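I'll show a sample.
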Amino acid sequence: MSLTSVGFRSLALTAVLVVAVQPATAQTTIANYTKGQVTFTQGGKTATWTLWQGSADRMVAGEQTVTQVSAIYTPNGKFTGPEPNLRTTVSRMGDYVEVVVLAVQKGPGGNGTLRIRGASCTATLARVDSTRAVGSGTCTGTFEGGGTVTKFSFTAKP
């Protein structure tokens, strides 16, 4: 499974929202990431997993710029099937940062997927460039399917 089929679905959704306002004039990949980690707390249990793959992209529509980081983390940094994984996509437009995707399969607190209804997250993207992505967030409410991720922080590097 590739990041294209996972994180870029949300990238496309974000692009559609931007395009609805005005046509996109440019979309570029800032970086592809293969090293990094995420530390997260789910169901009161904390875990640190290794980056399998990720990317940062930028879309421009008129004067609006959307920067988005998508990544998949696993306990051992490998992904060959339905093993434990955490998928995240965080977008920034100006000062507004949104957790678009946050889903865990077989995490320390079971399975859990952020949905618009039932849970909310706040996040920061402290740095996104060709050398690294750094971000964090906190969530409240109930995740669909099980354990809520109450906090997370991630790094990613090429």
